[in-house]
Amino acid sequence: MSTPRTPDPGLLVISVLSADWDGFWPVVGAELEQRFGPFDSSEEFAFDETDYYNDELGAPITRRLIAFDELRPLDELADIKLWTNAVEQRFAADGRRRFNLDPGFLTLQRLVLATGKNFSHRIYLRDGIWADLTLIWQRGHWVDFPWTFPDYAGEAMKTRLTKLRLSYKNKRSKPQT
Description:
With 177 residues, the protein is an alpha+beta fold. Helix content is 30%, strand content 29%. It holds the Pfam family DUF4416.
């Protein structure tokens, strides 16, 4: 018999996509910090593996990957996704989002993203939110799946996530305040 236990908290990571950073980032960055605490942000980097968001967000789209200082309980993922969806809608113009916020949790074993779309490999959480097992850490590197989004399957993203995983590992070894 397995004995249920609360898992270690995860590193909240949010991927932010936009073609118009000046139009929203200072305000939205401050809202993210107010809601989830201080964070580190990557530089902007190209999002060019797909044109899926171009009609809605414009082009060229770039991404920032942000990781929050405070580790969070994994069962907050649905709440976080619902909150980020509300922020996207609040800043929408003419029925179109100006940016896309994709939250997920990084742990030593995996990267799980939140989504509102069902698919065969996704696990339902609640309130229309699903958990997408995007990558797993195995034998010292990230392993992707046939369903992993191309941008997350690329080496540039995996390199960034490896650095965040090391940061997460270091945070776990220090007492949280």
